[in-house]
Structures are given as structure tokens and as C-alpha cells.
Specification:
8 strands, 2,3-Dihydroxybiphenyl 1,2-Dioxygenase, domain 1, globular, about 120 residues, 8-stranded mixed β-sheet, alpha+beta
Length: about 120
């Protein structure tokens, strides 16, 4: 298992891209659209290779909750050889599950649990 990136929620994707890409020099690696209409953009620092994922959710999305500055951490992403096994092991130890996206992100899917403070932790293959 390995820490791969941090995902933050943004309220205006273009404004955030202007800031992180235009002003801070991060480079866009890839982007995608979510089932509920949201958009994610993965950025990387060309010097350190650290990654940041910007997540924008449209009005009506179940994830478009009221935004409070400082509450923008969306999730922390970890890679795993078998993300479902990691998810199942953590849940069996009493960790609260958050979401399962079966069949997405590869054959094993994408799995989320909540840390003790309710922050979402993602596991993907």
C-alpha cells in the first residue's frame, strides 16, 4: 500500500486551475468525469512529483455539500494491490466504510473508508 495523492474539493474548477497550474506551476496529468457529473483533475509538481487532485462537484451532486473554507479536504488516495481486501480488512477492524465504486478504477474498483475524524481515505489498484 502507498500514499499516492491528496484530493481537495474546489468550488470553481477553472479558477483553481489558474491558481495551481498558472501561478504555482503544477502540471495537469489527467482528468475525468464522475458518474454524478463531477470532474476531477490530477496535477503533479514537476520537481517533487507530489500530486494533488482537484475535485469539483455540480449542484445536485450528493458530494456538493456546503463549502466552508478549511473543510476542503476531499480525500486521501492510497494505491493497493488488492484495494477490496484492504477495505474489507479495515471494515472488519471497525473502520467505518464510506463508499464502494465496484467496477470503477480497474477490475477491483475504488473503495473509501472514514478515518477517526470522518475524513475519507481512498484505496484503488
Amino acid at each position: 500500500m502507498g500514499l499516492r495523492y491528496f484530493g481537495i474539493r474546489v468550488t470553481d474548477l477553472e479558477r483553481s486551475l489558474d491558481f495551481y497550474v498558472g501561478l504555482l506551476g503544477l502540471k495537469e496529468q489527467r482528468r475525468g468525469k464522475m458518474r454524478h457529473g463531477g470532474v476531477w483533475v490530477l496535477l503533479a509538481d514537476p520537481r517533487t512529483r507530489q500530486r494533488l487532485e482537484l475535485n469539483w462537484y455540480p449542484q445536485g451532486s450528493p458530494y456538493a455539500t456546503r463549502y466552508v473554507p478549511g473543510d476542503g479536504l476531499d480525500h486521501i488516495g492510497f494505491t493497493a494491490k488488492d484495494p477490496q481486501a484492504v477495505f474489507d480488512r479495515l471494515v472488519s477492524k471497525g473502520v467505518e466504510p464510506a463508499l464502494k465504486l465496484e467496477g470503477e478504477g480497474g477490475a477491483k474498483g475504488i473503495y473509501y473508508v472514514k478515518d477517526p475524524d470522518g475524513n475519507w481515505i481512498e484505496f484503488f489498484g
